[in-house]
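Entry 12.
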Amino acid sequence: DGVKIGEPAAAASAITVASYTTRKEWIDRMGHQQSDPRLTHHDISSFSSAGPLRSGAEKPDVAAPGAWIISALSADSSLGQDPPHLAIDSLHVALPGTSMAAPFISGVIALLLEHNPQLDPHGAKDILRSISSIPGQPAGTFDPKWGYGLIDATKLTALLQPVP
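Predicted 3D structure (tokens):
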């Protein structure tokens, strides 16, 4: 059944993010087509750990793009040279992982905190769950691979509108 969610993502106050595959092909800096046959487009990434926790707690909380995300490459990084298929150019790299999905949700939480600076982790999780859904499933459905699903940008935008 694969690797289960471990620490620190298993912490009750942690907002745990599954990786969703939005890209499985890219062109590297040498102009070569690269692909990852392990992944299914528009599905949870095969490397994303499933829940629930051993305690039965529902994890992950939500899912976000995390497969072959194009990101900034540090000038001090060796990723641009080794392995070369990851480099898009001298400034960008393609990487997969829940570590690529988590910053997406961190940005959403930053917007929520800007709207409500008193928001705590449990409140943030409640909001994320309320504005997320698994494709093809009714809102509020939990799945051990998807959590409560993908953020609905329309619901997030409506939530962040100023109160008249």
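Annotation: Helices lie at 98-115, 121-130, 153-159. The longest helix spans residues 98-115.
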